[in-house]
Design goal:
- By secondary structure, the chain is of the alpha+beta class.
- The protein has a three-stranded antiparallel beta sheet, with helices on one face.
- Strand 1 and strand 2 form a beta hairpin.
- Helix 3 runs antiparallel to helix 4.
- The termini are far apart.
- The model has no long low-confidence stretch (mean pLDDT 80).
Length: 128
């Protein structure tokens, strides 16, 4: 029994050493497979992050984030396109609440001449 217990301790120490080597290798590969504003979430699945200035209402820093599927070179190109979109102001965002947006949508439906029953039905479903 004593030798069996000793063998399991040695095996667990060996497993720990192997795991630490694997984690060190993965850490190096993660560094190689990344770039500023990008991280690989899974093989060939990238999270692209771009700074979008400050929110004028809250003053907090804003970020635009996208998920991209492809290799590192394609992900860098997609991030460059995202940067261009952000600088052109296509990702300004809105601080409107869902209630505000719903109210605006209902007004637009009424303006377009939707049936009052249709509008009432939408309002009932939304208010649940």
């Amino acid at each position: 029994m004593m030798s069996n217990s000793r063998w399991s301790q040695e095996a667990s120490i060996q497993d720990f050493q192997d795991k630490s080597k694997i984690l060190a290798y993965v850490g190096r590969m993660t560094t190689l497979r990344s770039a500023p504003g990008m991280r690989e979430r899974a093989p060939n699945v990238w999270e692209l992050v771009v700074q979008a200035g400050r929110d004028p209402v809250t003053g907090k820093s804003r970020q635009v984030s996208r998920t991209f599927r492809g290799n590192l070179r394609e992900a860098k190109a997609a991030r460059a396109e995202l940067i261009v979109e952000v600088t052109k102001g296509r990702h300004t965002g809105s601080r409107a609440t869902v209630d505000d947006l719903f109210t605006d949508w209902i007004v637009e439906l009424q303006r377009k001449g939707r049936s009052p029953n249709t509008v009432r039905g939408y309002e009932l479903v939304y208010r649940r």
